[in-house]
Amino acid sequence: MHCFAVVVVRHPRTKRWLAVQETSKHNRLWWLPAGRVENGETFPAAAVRETREEAGIDIRLVGVLRVEHTPIGPQSDRMRIVFYAEPMDVSAPIKTTADDESLGAAWTTVPELQAWADAGQLRDEELLNWAMYLERGGEVAPLSTLGAESSGPEPHMEFRVFFQPSKPGHRYTTLPPAPVEERTDVYIAHSAGVGIKHRSGKRLEIKVRTVDAGEGWEAWGKHRCDDADVNTALARLQLPPLPTPSINVRVQKRRVATVVGGLYLMEETDLVVSVDGDHAAWKTICIEGTRHACERAAEALVHVSLQHEVVFTGGYPAFVRDVVQRRATSQLD
């Protein structure tokens, strides 16, 4: 079977569409990022790789537009999956230097695509048609539509490893360069299965663990609340009130998120955890997706984390509770 990944990329700020100019093999015409899925590669991984090779940017896959299967002979088939995506870094420059993959890339609009089509500068009108479809509010299927063979649907899981570096000031990086977001979150210690975080103003974010699959794999439901009183929000969700006295944990973060091999990874470095004046430096790495899809990557994260002295595996609520317990027993460095 001949398998191909095709990617429709839209810039979230400018609302422009990504086009790549193909090499002389395709008469230097404009088209979408696309290419063959290599042996042992998933369709999402191929979509990310082809876009990086042909347009020079990393993308975040948003959803699936179409799954196509075409018999082309008695012993051969052709399969394409068309993805919808956005750039990981909205300010990242696109490719301008020609190579064997493409002559370059451009952000364009529907009127410009139509003009290219009229002038015979498009390989075909697929990008134009998808752009018009999406601008009219066309539906996009979730990425969970795709998956490896299994016994049925799996919950979307999160696997997170926290660790304290064995050397002061040690910087450990697993992810390729990506935009860094700096912020400070305030967590309220509740329980290992409930996470409470202050949002801007009076807003709260409450996460409730719905699945604990063990070994650090968890599924969470997220609730955003406008209640000024935390216990009011907890009562509405039929959750126990805060323990008395309640303890706030401030966490300063430098957050990097990217897609590697079609998987969503997040790393938070310089994770400074503060409880009543006590400070501890941690780092965390998170991988999101179904356990089946992400398990190999998670094994690599565990291997890395075991090189450090203090390791904690689990979601933020359990981590915050553990930090508070360490403080209570004078184990927080």
TrEMBL record:
InterPro entries, sorted: Nudix_hydrolase (IPR020476), NUDIX_hydrolase-like_dom_sf (IPR015797), NUDIX_hydrolase_CS (IPR020084), NUDIX_hydrolase_dom (IPR000086), Nudix_hydrolase_domain (IPR051325)
Keyword Hydrolase applies: yes
Keyword Isomerase: no
Alphabetical keyword list: Hydrolase
GO BP annotations listed: AMP biosynthetic process; ATP biosynthetic process
GO molecular function: bis(5'-nucleosyl)-tetraphosphatase (asymmetrical) activity
Domain Nudix hydrolase: 1-133
Protein known as: Nudix hydrolase domain-containing protein
Family: Belongs to the Nudix hydrolase family.
Highest rank taxon of the organism: Eukaryota
One protein family per Pfam: NUDIX
